[in-house]
């Protein structure tokens, strides 16, 4: 454990202290190849931490979080002749507790993710 402590407290501190970080943005152009090679582990480490942070904080990529997960594909068929009201709203955000009908869950989903999902509204001609 002492070796790890020394590595972090002494070696890593010396490495960071000796990084050839330029004083200005255009000073980057004056860095030699040796300077860039010396900074590669540091830049790679910062990039890796940034990538892990992005993966941790990004919104879920799954559009269907909970509806009929046992099925290979979710398909709902509704005959328009069976509609009992003049207007029916169907969910397109997959968050509705009454799926396939819309219950307004897209409002919270849109607020949380910045998305713009809304229902599919079908109206009967009068």
From TrEMBL:
This is Iron-binding zinc finger CDGSH type domain-containing protein. The chain crosses the membrane at residues 36-57. Residues 73-112 form the Iron-binding zinc finger CDGSH type domain. It is a single-pass membrane protein. GO terms for molecular function: 2 iron, 2 sulfur cluster binding; metal ion binding. PANTHER family: CDGSH IRON-SULFUR DOMAIN-CONTAINING PROTEIN 1 (PTHR13680). It comes from Bugula neritina (Brown bryozoan). The keyword Iron applies. Its main location: membrane. Its cofactor is [2Fe-2S] cluster. Signal peptide: none annotated. It is found in: Membrane. GO terms for biological process: regulation of autophagy. InterPro entries: CISD1/2, FeS-contain_CDGSH-typ, FeS-contain_mitoNEET_N, MitoNEET_CISD. Keywords: 2Fe-2S, Iron, Iron-sulfur, Membrane, Metal-binding, Transmembrane, Transmembrane helix. GO terms for cellular component: mitochondrial outer membrane.
């Amino acid at each position: 454990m002492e070796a790890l402590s020394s590595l972090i407290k002494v070696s890593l501190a010396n490495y960071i202290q000796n990084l050839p970080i330029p004083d200005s943005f255009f000073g980057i152009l004056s860095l030699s190849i040796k300077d860039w090679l010396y900074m590669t582990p540091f830049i790679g480490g910062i990039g890796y931490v940034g990538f892990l942070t992005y993966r941790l904080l990004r919104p879920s990529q799954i559009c269907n979080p909970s509806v009929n997960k046992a099925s290979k594909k979710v398909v709902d068929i509704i005959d328009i002749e069976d509609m009992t009201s003049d207007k029916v709203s169907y969910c397109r955000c997959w968050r509705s507790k009454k799926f396939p009908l819309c219950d307004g869950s897209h409002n919270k989903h849109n607020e949380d993710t910045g998305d713009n999902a809304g229902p599919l509204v079908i109206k009967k001609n009068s």
